[in-house]
Amino acid sequence: MGAMDDLLGPAEVTALHRSLTSAAPVAGLQGLLAAIPQLDPLSLRGRTDLLAGQLVRAYPVYAQAAAAYRGALADPEFKGWMMWPVTESAVTLALAGGDPADFDDALDLLAALTPRLTSEFAIRRLLTADLDRSLALIQAWTADPDPHVRRLASEGTRPYLPWAIRVPGLLQDPEATLPILAALRDDPSEDVRRSVANHLNDISRHAPEITVQACARWLDAPAPTTERLVRHSLRTLVKKAHPGALALLGFEPAEVLVEDLATTTPAITLPGRLRFGFTLTNTGRTTARLAVDYVVHYVKARGGTAPAVFKLAVLELPAGESRTLTGSHALHQMTTRRHYAGIHRLQIQVNGTRHGSLAFEVELDPVEPSPASPASLES
């Protein structure tokens, strides 16, 4: 299996067994050690599910499991990827019992465990089961003294959290988590603020106007970190040339001319790099603040093309002046983007408007290795 799968291997399972045996010994914990030979063919997600099942059998009642896990926190080695099956088993037991008190306690337990390894994946099933109840309790985490807990409030409730299951209610009500984000937008931790920006960027994928409105409110009463957070929150909308997002960041429609768009690498064999340059002129009457991006139109498997936008520069250009800009773009097979041979195109995007068109050919190197597939973490 891949390197990610080995994050939860025999050593981690043995350490988990040791921590829990010290905190709350039960005969069923031997199931963890018995499961070790079954790990090898499984993905990280599969290993997590296997071990979580063993924990549910060892501690079949939620209160028993919660006490064991809290007791194990006394062990500083009770940390890392062994925590994922721990958090998943706690949620499974809390939901199976149907007791609201267990539901609430499970959220408290995830907050206690998250400094050892984020609980952001396990929390998704609680959000799905009762979104309103969960969010009401999570709101209090925004004032927690531990930045890991505050980050969990934002990260665990992201609409499109990578590797995690979707929570339908978060997609149906894009404003549901805004009070959490508002409480954390000026957080002293950069990690928390980055999570807030990523969360709001997630919302922009299906509710762009709500994202722009939230950013506008925050800019009306800014902290020193607000402008940077807003830029990061709006990055997808800027690439999509959303007028409201561009205007909020000071990128008004501009009169510009893009000339001499050219490349020194018209034919590229993967892995390779496209190198390009052009001249940008402000033909308007006032200085223009410009967000300069470039768009690569990738050839797809069936011969069509699909655009992807990349950042190039942000600059202020006085009226009548020109600037020569250059860029380079790496092309190689990735787990997130498969390249195909054929004629690709490049365009320049300035404040959301596309200019020019440059063709370049991509050829595949038959000896270039295919990218390894990432471990599946969807449940």
Verbal overview:
The chain is α+β, with helices and mostly antiparallel strands and 379 residues long. 42% of the residues lie in helices and 20% in strands. The protein is built from 16 helices and 8 strands. The strands form 2 sheets. It has a 5-stranded mixed beta sheet with strand order 2-8-7-4-5, with no helix packed on it. The chain has a 3-stranded antiparallel beta sheet with strand order 1-3-6, with no helix packed on it. A hairpin with a 5-residue loop joins β4 and β5. α3 (44-58) crosses α5 (83-97). The protein is globular and about 80 Å long. Residues 370-379 have low confidence and may be disordered.
Topology readout:
Blueprint: H1 10-23, H2 30-34, H3 44-58, H4 62-72, H5 83-97, H6 100-113, H7 123-129, H8 131-139, H9 147-155, H10 168-172, H11 178-184, H12 190-204, H13 208-220, H14 226-233, H15 235-239, H16 243-248, E1 256-263, E2 267-269, E3 272-282, E4 288-299, E5 305-317, E6 322-331, E7 342-350, E8 353-363
Parallel strand pairs: 2-8
Antiparallel strand pairs: 1-3, 3-6, 4-5, 4-7, 7-8
Helix pairs in contact: 1-4, 3-5, 4-5, 4-6, 5-6, 5-7, 7-8, 9-12, 12-13, 12-14, 13-14
InterPro entries: ARM-type_fold (IPR016024), DNA_alkylation (IPR014825), HEAT_type_2 (IPR021133)
Protein name: 3-methyladenine DNA glycosylase AlkC
Organism: Arthrobacter gandavensis
